[in-house]
Amino acid sequence: MKLYDWDFAPNCRRVRMYMYEKGIELPKKDVITPEIKLNDGYADYYPHYMVPMLELDDGTQIGEALSIWIYLEEKYPTPPLMGVHPVEKAMISAWERRAYDEGIVGHAEIFRNSHPNFVDRGLPGHRLKIEQIPALIERGKHRVTHYYEKLEKQLATNNFVVGDRFSVADINAVIVVDFGLALEMPVPDIYPNIQSYYDRLKDRPSVKRSMTKHMPDGTPIPQAA
Ligand SMILES: N[C@@H](CCC(=O)N[C@@H](CS)C(=O)NCC(=O)O)C(=O)O
């Protein structure tokens, strides 16, 4: 197996943090250029033109971080990161989706529609020009706020996002917060539960090891103190 990766990309980090929690070590191939673009060879090789992508030894290409987790969870069930019992599995899945749809995609809307290297690359996965839409920056901020409001309440009664066990819902939650730090948008003080949760998790080995400190062009990424 081989993981096609981009160090900074939040969706790639979802897979790396997951692997480190499980103790899975896989060869990784970085396919990003200093201009923060996927290299041409990769674009021709993988038609969905996104990272992460896990390639199996028989050549099967698995895209989408969630699908890669599903595959690895079957192969490496311990420790379980996607729940064990039916209700736990469903709750983890729901909170993982909320973090993705509102937090990660919300921040991605802010990033892709404002960063100068993403002019005409408003969406991932397209080789045609997709214009930036500045109005999506504000909408992205609303989406992140919407997630933080829900997460703040959830963390009032849960040690981790779902119950007492670290899961993929936590992987996404930590990545939302770190994506915000990289965009110089830290968690506002009106969310003390999220702030103390993040303080507890930020030094976890998988969280630290999966994090990158620089953009592909060498620009340092702001991070938590
Ligand atoms: N839905 C996909 C999203 C993957 C995605 O957005 N990947 C971004 C990096 S985070 C990408 O491939 N970007 C390539 C580009 O910007 O050209 C997943 O969950 O894995």
Describe this structure in words.
The chain has 225 residues and is mainly alpha-helical. The protein is built from 8 helices and 4 strands. The chain folds into 2 domains: 2-75, Glutaredoxin; 86-209, Glutathione S-transferase Yfyf (Class Pi), Chain A, domain 2, CATH 1.20.1050. The chain has helices at 10-22, 40-45, 65-75, 86-112, 135-154, 168-182, 192-201, 205-209, and strands at residues 2-5, 28-30, 53-55, 61-63. Strands 2-1-3-4 form a 4-stranded mixed beta sheet, covered by helices on one side. Strand 3 and strand 4 (61-63) form a beta hairpin. The structure holds glutathione (GSH).
List keywords for this structure.
mainly alpha, Glutathione S-transferase Yfyf (Class Pi), Chain A, domain 2, four-stranded mixed beta sheet, 2 domains, 225 residues, Glutaredoxin, globular, 4 strands, binds glutathione
Spans of 5+ residues with little confidence (pLDDT < 50)?
none
Quick one: how many beta strands?
A: 4
Biggest sheet features: 4 strands, mixed
Strand content: 5-15%
- CATH architectural category of the largest domain: Up-down Bundle
| Number of helical elements | 8
Q: How would the global form be characterised? A: globular
Per the CATH scheme, the topology name of the largest domain is Glutathione S-transferase Yfyf (Class Pi), Chain A, domain 2
